[in-house]
């Protein structure tokens, strides 16, 4: 049988070789200057063909691809089908002898001059793209003529698979010229295995080496000296990087504009475009640009998203929220690349804001930024502008906007700092462009208006406007960046920053220094000793994180005592007197309360020690570690778990996330795990009990804390969880996507059919009440809780600001140590809410295991206007009603996969919800009466664009 098939294939192949396409034997080729139709631009393409025989006009038929032109129907937004009259047709047909002339005309298949509108055409337009043969046939004589026609989104658009061939070709072309150097560099691989493509353009390879090995090294070690030197030197004696990026690949002109620029750079001697001044013409020589700069293009940071024409990555997470958390392969790659190249400017090309938006942002600004140096000076409180109009991000934005509109159909642009009051802030470093500010780069999110060619032109010329501006102001701008590094190295808290740090009422708040003169401490100690560190696993992670981000990390050589506590040799120390101290500090400091603002764009709580759950000590004593430190340059590997256990049964402490991975591995292999229902000095409610020998085979790569089991211990068997996750409520990244990512990361078993599940984990509120009948249910966050209430799945009382789904707070919280869900926490601990709700007194039968602290100062940081009503209210409880078990969290335990300290709450809820004695513990009491909500917020409900 096999042989026959092989023969047949050979025969077919031979046939194909002997008889090329049947068309080309007798068909003529149409002659056309332009063979591109467009989805976003009405076009009319002249064609002409000599049939070399007689044809008849009324016998002619036209087809494109495999269907007649009459079948190329336009899209109907109402029926969501292609059922309107055809959008491609022929016009002005005439015959002169045997020669046919006419026009191939397209109107707009979606009725729009851009393809960014969601859901249509945004999510469907790619299905129309491609190259199709246009065939003209005389039905009488059978005479044919044809030509290939390409249907484009707009001129210059690339589908994912078209990017790399174009990059390869332009890199070859650029290097062919001999006077410039093009280099492809993959900055990393996505979880689906795609390379993240970056192209570097420089004068030659030596300029890149010289920058990395000399200029940047000196900049980070002795910026003051370098600053003096460049003031004297010819600016072309050194080159600094300019970085262009795209984070959201379905904002496609951000990709195409880069490829367009690269093509020009690979072939042209100069760029000629309309300049910043009205009616001026700018000539920018490629040689001048490369004498001064190294151009870096990360064509798209999200190739998996590009392949699917979607905003999010393959985990459905938004990487433009993840740059400071770095939970995703893409942001790990970007952060390492930013630390490696440390660009002077960073432009992230996004869409779509019809007004053409270019950052800088509205306040509040993250206080760790050296904002005066980034903007070009102190802010004038009256004009809200920079004193003396010095070079900086504001002038840079204007140059981008002016040149962007001078070379496209647009006539204006906006800068949030001046055109919005609030709501487009940079208090959060999750956005790629904002993240670059912490490296001292002039970072800008640029939001082009639409998905079409005009926006490609606007984006491309915004970049050219940027290059021109940075060329004109190179020395000053680079000196400002060097000054940022100098402030770091001298751990100087320069008060010039304060003018930018305004409150919502317009008054200057400055950096939140508390009782201290210096906003920055002298050191952070991350203890490694068990007695001083509650989760050493997270410290190993932080070491890798800091090294990836260019923060210097040290280990103490000898023991050091600070405030009566002795930190043994080997403690991890982050000194603040270093160039990238702000990056370290932003991750480790307390954070700010911005609740007086009416709107914020996204979360602002970062606080790694609290949300990853490790001990970090702020040291305010200069020279405490002078001459006592050794630098760590490679991540430290976690030691192996101490397996010295004599007892047959072992208690696995539920005090880090490796314990969850271990338990899930064992459960997946059918090993028995019990959840502990009693506590002692060493053992907490909610720890796990396993057979010691069973466990030993699963420890590789995991660092868990083990305790010998006493002869008798109360514990309940864990029914291996089979989790059904409710789907997202939209196509945008949301808590449900983060929950899926986290549970996968922890190794839980997730089933796709609710019928196969023994627990439903809901963080979207997307469910049918009937389908949940008899299923144990865990609801997380306000969308789930609201749906539970609306569908009367359970009698729930929740409180939240109107439109307050984006309100967040790091809160002081109390946990019930007699409940296995919360038994491994402290009775006075923290919680985190990012979707704005708390629950009020539940049914008397319910067991409250987490609540907001009763103290007046319960609110630690975040953005939650009018958060008084939250005080003392419920964050989590368990209940059993009519044979159905429930756990409710208003704590967003999986938010952005950053809340690692809180994962154990969810895990233990999952492990215990199917057990017979599920409802346990004494339960916490609500003692602060329910308060009325005093504030109506005006939060922007849309997460998009940006
Ligand atoms: Zn975007």
UniProtKB/TrEMBL annotation:
<keyword id="KW-0378">Hydrolase</keyword>
<protein>
    <submittedName>
        <fullName>Zinc carboxypeptidase</fullName>
    </submittedName>
</protein>
<dbReference type="InterPro" id="IPR000834">
    <property type="entry name" value="Peptidase_M14"/>
</dbReference>
<dbReference type="GO" id="GO:0006508">
    <property type="term" value="P:proteolysis"/>
</dbReference>
<feature type="domain" description="Peptidase M14">
    <location>
        <begin position="156"/>
        <end position="470"/>
    </location>
</feature>
<dbReference type="GO" id="GO:0008270">
    <property type="term" value="F:zinc ion binding"/>
</dbReference>
<comment type="similarity">
    <text>Belongs to the peptidase M14 family.</text>
</comment>
<dbReference type="Pfam" id="PF00246">
    <property type="entry name" value="Peptidase_M14"/>
</dbReference>
<keyword id="KW-0645">Protease</keyword>
<keyword id="KW-0121">Carboxypeptidase</keyword>
<feature type="active site" description="Proton donor/acceptor">
    <location>
        <position position="447"/>
    </location>
</feature>
<dbReference type="GO" id="GO:0004181">
    <property type="term" value="F:metallocarboxypeptidase activity"/>
</dbReference>
């Amino acid at each position: 049988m096999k042989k026959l098939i092989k023969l047949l294939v050979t025969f077919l192949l031979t046939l194909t070789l002997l008889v090329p396409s049947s068309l080309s034997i007798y068909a003529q080729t149409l002659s056309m200057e332009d063979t591109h139709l467009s989805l976003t631009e009405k076009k009319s393409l002249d064609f002409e063909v000599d049939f070399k025989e007689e044809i008849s006009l009324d016998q002619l038929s036209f087809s494109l691809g495999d269907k007649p032109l009459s079948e190329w129907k336009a899209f109907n937004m109402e029926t969501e089908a292609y059922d309107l009259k055809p959008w491609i047709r022929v016009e002005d047909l005439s015959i002169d002898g045997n020669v046919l002339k006419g026009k191939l005309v397209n109107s707009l298949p979606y009725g729009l001059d851009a393809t960014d509108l969601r859901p249509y055409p945004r999510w469907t337009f790619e299905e129309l793209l491609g190259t199709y043969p246009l065939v003209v046939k005389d039905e009488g004589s059978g005479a044919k003529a044809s030509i290939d026609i390409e249907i484009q989104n707009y001129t210059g658009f690339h589908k994912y698979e078209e990017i790399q061939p174009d990059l390869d070709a332009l890199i070859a072309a650029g290097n062919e010229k001999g006077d410039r150097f093009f280099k492809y560099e993959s900055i990393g691989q996505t979880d689906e295995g795609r390379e993240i493509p970056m192209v570097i353009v420089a004068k030659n390879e030596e300029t890149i080496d010289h920058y990395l090995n000399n200029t940047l090294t000196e900049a980070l070690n002795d910026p003051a000296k370098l600053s003096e030197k460049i003031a004297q030197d010819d600016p072309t004696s050194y080159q600094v990087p300019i970085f262009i990026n795209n984070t959201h690949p379905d904002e496609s002109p951000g990709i195409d504009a880069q490829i367009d620029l690269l093509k020009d750079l690979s072939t042209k001697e100069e760029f000629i475009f309309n300049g910043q001044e009205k009616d001026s013409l700018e000539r920018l020589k490629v040689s001048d640009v490369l004498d001064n700069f190294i151009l870096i293009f990360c064509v798209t940071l999200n190739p998996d998203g590009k392949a699917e024409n979607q905003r999010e990555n393959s985990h459905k997470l938004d990487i433009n929220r993840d740059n400071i958390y770095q939970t995703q392969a893409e942001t790990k790659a970007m952060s390492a690349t930013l630390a490696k190249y440390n660009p002077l400017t960073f432009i992230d090309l996004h869409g779509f804001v019809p007004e053409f938006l270019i950052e800088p942002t509205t306040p509040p600004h993250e206080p760790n930024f050296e904002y005066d140096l980034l903007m070009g000076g102190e802010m004038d409180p009256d004009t809200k502008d920079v004193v003396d109009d010095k070079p900086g991000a504001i002038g840079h934005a204007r140059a981008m906007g002016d040149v962007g509109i001078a070379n496209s159909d647009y006539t204006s642009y906006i800068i949030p700092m001046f055109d919005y009051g609030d709501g487009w802030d940079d208090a959060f470093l999750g956005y790629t462009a904002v993240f670059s500010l912490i490296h001292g780069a002039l970072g800008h999110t640029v939001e082009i208006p639409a998905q079409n060619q005009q926006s490609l032109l606007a984006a491309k010329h915004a970049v050219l406007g940027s290059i021109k501006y940075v060329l004109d102001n190179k020395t000053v701008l680079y000196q400002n960046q060097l000054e940022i590094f100098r402030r770091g190295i001298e751990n100087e808290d320069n008060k010039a920053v304060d003018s930018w740090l305004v409150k919502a009422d317009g008054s200057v708040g400055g950096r939140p220094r508390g009782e201290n003169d210096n906003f920055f401490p002298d050191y952070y100690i991350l203890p490694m000793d068990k007695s001083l560190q509650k989760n050493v696993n997270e410290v190993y992670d932080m070491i890798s994180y800091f090294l990836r981000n260019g923060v210097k990390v040290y280990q103490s050589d000898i023991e050091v005592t600070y405030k009566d506590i002795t930190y043994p040799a080997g403690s991890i120390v982050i000194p603040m007197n270093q160039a990238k101290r702000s990056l370290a500090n932003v991750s480790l400091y307390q954070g700010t309360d911005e609740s007086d603002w009416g709107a914020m764009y996204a979360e602002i709580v970062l606080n790694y020690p609290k949300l990853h759950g490790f001990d970090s000590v702020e040291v305010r004593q200069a020279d405490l570690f002078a001459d006592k430190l050794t630098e760590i340059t490679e991540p430290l590997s976690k030691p192996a778990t101490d397996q010295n256990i004599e007892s047959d049964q072992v208690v696995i402490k539920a005090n880090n996330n490796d314990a969850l991975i271990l338990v899930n591995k064992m459960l997946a292999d059918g090993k028995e795990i019990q959840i502990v229902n009693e506590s002692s000095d060493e053992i907490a409610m909610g720890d796990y009990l396993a057979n010691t020998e069973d466990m030993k085979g699963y420890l590789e790569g995991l660092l868990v804390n083990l305790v010998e089991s006493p002869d008798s211990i109360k514990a309940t068997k864990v029914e291996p969880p089979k989790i059904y996750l409710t789907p997202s409520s939209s196509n945008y990244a949301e808590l449900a996507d983060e929950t899926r990512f986290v549970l996968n990361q922890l190794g839980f078993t997730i089933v796709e059919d609710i019928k196969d599940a023994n627990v439903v984990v809901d963080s979207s509120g997307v469910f049918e009440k009937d389908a949940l009948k008899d299923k144990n249910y865990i609801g997380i966050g306000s969308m789930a809780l609201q749906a539970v209430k609306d569908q009367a799945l359970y009698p729930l009382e929740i409180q939240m600001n109107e439109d307050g789904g984006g309100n967040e707070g790091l809160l002081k919280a109390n946990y019930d140590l007699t409940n296995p869900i919360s038994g491994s926490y402290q009775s006075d601990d923290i919680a985190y809410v990012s979707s704005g709700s708390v629950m009020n007194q539940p049914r008397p039968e319910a067991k409250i295991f987490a609540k907001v602290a009763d103290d007046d100062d319960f609110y630690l940081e975040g953005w939650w206007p009018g958060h008084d009503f939250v005080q003392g209210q419920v964050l989590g409880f368990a209940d059993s009603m009519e044979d159905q078990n429930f756990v409710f969290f208003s704590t967003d335990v999986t938010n952005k996969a950053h809340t690692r300290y809180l994962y154990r709450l969810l895990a233990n809820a999952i492990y215990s919800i199917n057990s017979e004695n599920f409802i346990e513990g004494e339960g916490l009491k609500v003692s602060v009466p329910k308060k009325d909500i005093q504030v109506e917020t005006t939060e922007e409900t849309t997460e998009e664009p940006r």
